[in-house]
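User: I'm curious whether this sequence folds into something compact or stays loose and floppy. Could you predict its structure so I can see for myself?
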Amino acid sequence: MAHSPSRICKGCWQNLHLPVPLRGLPSLPFRAVGLKPSRMNPNTCTFCELAFTTIMRARNVDIDASVMFADLRGYTGLTETLPPEAMSELLDTFYDACGNAIWAQDGLLNKTIGDAVMAVFNFPVKHGDHAARAIAAARGLQQDCRGRFAEFARTHGLDERSLGVGVGIDSGIMKFGEFGRSHRDLTAIGTVVNVAARAQAAAGPGAILVTQRVHDRTPTLAWDDPGRDYTLKGFDAPFRLFAA
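Assistant: Here's the prediction. I'll summarize afterward.
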């Protein structure tokens, strides 16, 4: 289900106590100067994307946050059998489900990378339970995708099992900001980001794998899975991952 859009920027209100309007007539003067809803989270504004450069006087900052990667399984194989219009429809369906799930938890849909997305939780809208929110977003995404993919499969004569989403989540300190010179990229970098991406690669279709750090930050969640060790590409030591 789509989230209810906020009428004011949650980031500006939380961090600066400024009621910056995002929608309706009060927002028109702000639109005139280029301030509008962010494409990464429509409940925040474009100013929030660059707040650290104007307020903190830094190109990037260290933040404690959770990162979620979600990858659409089966997409590459389907390009061999389905027409481009159907593949575009499938990708739109996946992106819509990701946006709804991430924004419902005040996350930032930071990147769309082909048939995958990267989301950051706890910036610019801050929540102490950002790890739990990342898991909630992942679960919401999986539930939404199951219904959407079943309908897509029926429409195009596919086996439902040919579609799915693998999700990986990690939490910790990372750098968020602008990186690059000739081409500037607004994103998060660091070991936490890399581990989340590798955890996603290890997750099967329909699965959510989270790290020990995420597990330890969410003791109130029901953890039936004792976890198991995975060898993640690029890391020598194994990581214990838990199914959420």
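Summary: DSSP finds nine helices and eight strands in the chain. The longest helix spans residues 130-156.
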